[in-house]
Predict the structure of Phosphonate transport system ATP-binding protein.
Amino acid sequence: MNLLEIKGLGKRYATGDQALADIRLALPKSQVMALIGPSGAGKSTLIRCINRLVEPSEGQVLLGGLSLTGLRGGALRKARRRMGMIFQDHALVDRLTVMENVLSGRLGYVGFWRSVWRRYPRADVQEAFRLLERVGLAHAIDKRADALSGGQRQRVGIARALLQNPELLLIDEPTASLDPKTSRQIMRLIRELCEERGLTAIINIHDVDLARRFCDRIVGLHAGRVVFDGLPDALDAATLTRIYGEEDWDAHAAEAAQDDDPDAPPALHASRSGWPRVTT
């Protein structure tokens, strides 16, 4: 059964620029999909059209059969609870503590004034503690967000998104500002959490090697259109050239193989959804 369906989605800005054109995708439950493509291909726009941070110009987005593109006001806010967003720039409030930032993931449930006075239900606070322990930040609960490293800030963003108890994770460049080792750790954490919670995820990511390693399915965008949709193993040099343009992809692969990652690449095996699953 598909959790998310995108039908003929398009986005044209007032300038006349076409950011997306006729995007058609379906995501089964529990699938982790990577969006790859050059800068300006429309990856971030697609993610933001799904949760209506950007208004599509045409087409439909359906979440569990519910059309998101026609929703307004309270109905849209309620639907957004079902989608957790993890931002490239983390979107944390620097003057707040780690715990306070994570608890802000419940804003859609507790209301503005309860959040202002930090009056969250006990169950939410307990779950926030559990999530912070799971992402490796139990020791930093009372730290201000501006005292954290980039990897720690991303972990706070992950915990905050999960506190919404979402069905779908939308993840925008989770490793953009991180070093290679931390990038692998963050992608591994996201992957494990999706498997533990049965979450569907769309990850906009520039690092093709990380997409291959940690995602079930890869969708390549070029100039706002889908030019590849398939398994990680099918992403060969010819396909990468179609997505990104001319490049010595064999040399790139050799460089990636020489990375100092002590961990072996995870094995792939077929899942019931028909896409390979990553095992670690």
About this structure: Residues 137 and 152 are 7 Å apart (CA to CA). The chain has one domain: 30-56+74-279. The two ends are 25 Å apart (CA to CA). The first helix runs from residue 43 to 50.
